[in-house]
Amino acid sequence: MNESIHVVCTHCHAMNRVPELRVGDAPSCGRCQQPLFQGQPVALDSAHFDKHLKGDLPLVVDFWAPWCGPCKSMAPQFAAAAQQLEPQIRLAKVDTEAEQALGARFGIRSIPTMVLFRGGQELARKSGALATRDIVAWARSVIK
Ligand code: ZN
To answer: Ligand 1 is a single-atom ion; what residues have CB below 5 A from it?
Structure first.
């Protein structure tokens, strides 16, 4: 068995091939040598969004904005969820005020909204601020 998966680096956005069995062994990026998993969400802009969408890891994106109170209160909950969900699931954040085209592309009408992608396809979405345990439970219920 030598299956490998594509993991996108959160620092330099290079695509890395990681043997599936080594994903949990704190692999680092072949280009920039930074850890591929740091247990925290990656902030994505339109320049890098599609790169991460092409990775093999399921991607949970928190669409938020700086003026949104519930978004701010959810931020530490979402960050804590990343610690629990990595390395099986990648968590990312998109600032819909700075990246309005991304919000429009995915039809984000209220924030915060989380969208779960896998293989470039949207599998599920959920609106409203959630606690860490609910974010984790939701993501795991979609990615069985
Ligand atoms: Zn890198």
So the answer is: 9, 11-12, 14, 29, 31-32
What is the three-class DSSP state of 2? coil
Ligand 1 mean position to 7 CA, how many Å? 10
Domains annotated for the chain, with CATH where assigned, are 39-143 (3.40.30.10)
Please give the distance, rounded to the nearest whole angstrom, from the Cα atom of residue 107 to the centre of ligand 1. 30
Residues in contact with 96: Cβ distance below 8 Å, sequence separation at least 6, in sequence order: 63, 64, 65, 102, 103, 108, 111
pTM: 0.96
Show the tokens assigned to 49.
């969004």
Residue range 16-60, pLDDT digits in tens: 999 999 999 999 999 999 999 999 999 999 999 999 999 999 999
Tally the residues of the chain: 144
Q: What is the pLDDT of residues 109-120, one digit of tens each?
A: 999 999 999 999
Check if 68 is active-site.
yes
Cα–Cα distance for residue pair 65/99, rounded to 1 Å: 10
54, 16 Cβ separation under 8 angstroms: no
